[in-house]
Design a protein that fits this description.
about 600 residues; alpha/beta; 10-stranded mixed β-sheet; 32 strands; disordered C terminus
Length: about 600
């Protein structure tokens, strides 16, 4: 990020150097004091020079922007975002989010990291610097996040922390999963100790946390958390000294639940912020981004100025970046939104780094992606898959199997259900009448011979065909759910041969295919093109029988072991509680179904 010298900032603040631009006639929403009052804003370079009466800052070449009758707020900050889950590259995601007022995001770029290493992260950060959206990077607490460790392209540990925590671009330790702290994982504890020494904040991840877990995390120095499934859990984290990020993503809808900490339980809002975590671009284009969360909070009963604070200054303060963003005050980046009113919060114009970048819900300049290096174009090394290679080996005519079951009431959560399934030619077979389908994970990096493992899953509802994705946190191996083994083989092989993507297959035919050539996880598509592709993929999955709210939204998270109760990885089925691979044919793991 551009960092003017201290002398330049002082010269701009004193008006020695005249403003490049003055936004005149608006009502300033001062998130530092909670006031709204008439004030002009002087911008010099990419920073705020002054607010209020700025006549002394006007020069002969100063551009005047008329904001009469409008309100001025800081640019919005997404407090926790896996932007790769949008399947858009940094450039294209910025184009989607900035038009709705999001000018800064906090991200670990962890999906780029596990595929392309530190070179991939550096490349993504350079890409952000050329866009109107800033990325404040947190070094992931470790990679892979999985327990036990799955196969990834790049592992990140204490040695990498020692290097990257010295980077100017590093603003903390990202996504510290609770289980690793509770396990006293030596590598993770070393990373956190380095963060304490370097005075960097530690960002947490503790879904459905018990009180003792919350206490342990706070004692370890975890500063904030974005994973609360109930308002009561969120309140416990606030009481334990953490800051709270309320998540409202494309699949995990927790705003209305967690905002109750403020509207019902009376917690002060100043230590509460917002995040989207994972967003489908179609949802952004239909409903907005952080601006949507502001409106939701206001509708739930939060005062408008407090809701704007939650999307700006609160987030900046919890991440210790409020000297750079989060308020319209001297020295901060000139990220200014022109909105119709605090109550309705419709973003009309967006200034980022001092430049007008969006107006009327559209960016002014078409995004142009940079050239991609070899680091972000690694080849897939999956061993060719055949129909006969897919399946759980078993003896007899039937087998009692632990089937991973999607919980339709709680986003992402997977339980286990015992089922007696047919065995044909030594292989457990799918039973579409009972929604018992195949789920496979194919290791893409060639470190485990590019092998494919098979388990069984319930909840996707496919009557035929298969769906697959190479964008699948936390390791981005190819995940596939299907009713037909030949279609699964076609789906996996197609993604491997074409450098990654998402695909729907039926009866030996590719029904829909979205290429994701950048690291096998994102694409340089315009947001509107990506939204159309997402809609086509979801429609094709529904045509196969899937009734989940988002077939691919639920598919891609199956490999995450930090979500209860079961995950499916390239090692097999993992039990969240025991943190090991289970034998799904073990009678103790899969008792006979009724």
């Amino acid at each position: 990020m551009n960092q003017p010298s201290l002398r330049q900032l002082i010269d701009a603040g004193e008006g020695v150097v005249k403003a490049d631009r003055i936004i005149r006639g608006g009502q300033l929403v001062n998130v530092c004091t909670g006031e709204i009052y008439p004030a002009d804003v002087a911008i010099t370079g990419d920073r705020i020079a002054a607010t209020g009466d700025v006549a002394a800052y006007e020069g002969p070449d100063t551009e005047i922007v008329d904001a009469t009758g409008k309100y001025l707020t800081p640019g919005l900050i997404d407090g926790h975002l896996h932007l790769e889950c949008s399947k858009l590259s940094v450039t294209m995601f910025a184009d989607a989010a900035v038009r709705y007022g999001t000018t800064s995001v906090i991200s670990g770029l962890d999906q780029f990291l596990v595929v392309a290493g530190l070179d991939g992260v550096r490349e993504a950060l350079r890409e952000a610097d050329a866009s109107p959206m800033k990325i404040f990077w947190g070094a992931p607490f470790k990679t892979p996040y999985t327990l036990p460790e799955t196969t990834v392209g790049f592992s990140f540990g204490p040695d990498e922390h020692a290097e990257t925590q010295e980077w100017a671009e590093c603003f903390g330790v990202w996504e510290t999963v609770a289980e690793f702290v509770l396990n006293r994982d030596e590598k993770v504890l070393r990373a956190l100790e380095l963060a304490h020494r370097n005075r960097l904040p530690i960002f947490g991840c503790a879904p459905m946390a018990a009180p003792t877990t919350i206490n342990a995390l706070s004692a370890a120095g975890v500063r904030l958390d974005h994973e609360s499934y109930t308002a009561e859990e969120a309140l416990l984290k606030l009481r334990a000294g953490m800051s709270l990020l309320i998540r409202e993503s494309s699949v995990a809808h927790f705003m209305n639940e967690n905002v109750r900490t403020v509207t019902e339980f009376g917690a002060q809002s100043r230590r509460v912020g917002f995040c989207t975590d994972d967003m489908h671009v179609a949802d952004i284009l239909r409903e907005g981004h952080l601006d949507k969360l502001v409106r939701m909070a206001i509708k739930a009963g939060v005062k408008p100025v407090e809701a704007i604070q939650m999307a700006t200054l609160n987030c900046a303060e919890m991440y210790r970046i409020d000297h750079l963003v989060g308020s319209i005050t001297p020295g901060r980046y000139a990220d200014v939104l022109v909105v119709d009113s605090p109550e309705s919060f419709q973003v009309e114009r967006v200034f980022a780094r001092g430049e007008l970048v969006a107006e009327g819900g559209r960016t002014l300049d078409a995004p142009v992606a940079p050239e991609r290096s070899a680091a972000l174009s690694p080849a897939f090394q999956v061993a060719p898959v055949t129909a006969d290679s897919i399946g759980v080996r078993a003896e007899g005519d039937s087998a009692d199997v632990l089937v991973v079951e999607m919980d339709r009431t709680v986003p992402f959560v997977r339980k286990g259900v015992p089922m007696t399934l047919p065995v044909v030619d030594g292989t457990v077979r799918a039973d579409t009448d009972r929604d018992a389908l195949y789920v496979t994970v194919s290791e893409r990096y060639g470190k485990n011979d590019g092998a494919t493992v098979t388990a069984m899953i319930n909840g996707f509802g496919l009557r035929s065909g298969a769906i697959a994705s190479s964008a699948a946190p936390d390791d981005n191996n190819i995940i596939c759910v299907g009713a037909d083994r030949a279609d699964i083989a076609l789906a996996v092989n197609h993604l491997s041969e074409h450098g990654g993507g998402q695909v729907v297959v039926e009866n030996g035919e590719i029904k829909e295919f979205l290429p994701l050539p950048v690291a096998g996880i994102v694409a340089d598509l315009a947001p509107e093109e990506m939204a159309a592709a997402e809609d086509r993929l979801e429609a094709a999955a529904r045509a196969l029988g899937c009734e989940l709210p988002s077939a691919f939204g639920f598919l891609i998270f199956l490999e995450i072991t930090a979500i209860p109760e079961y995950a499916v990885t390239d090692l097999g089925v993992v039990n969240y509680h025991t943190q090991d691979v289970v034998d799904i044919l073990d009678p103790a793991a899969a008792p006979v179904a009724n």
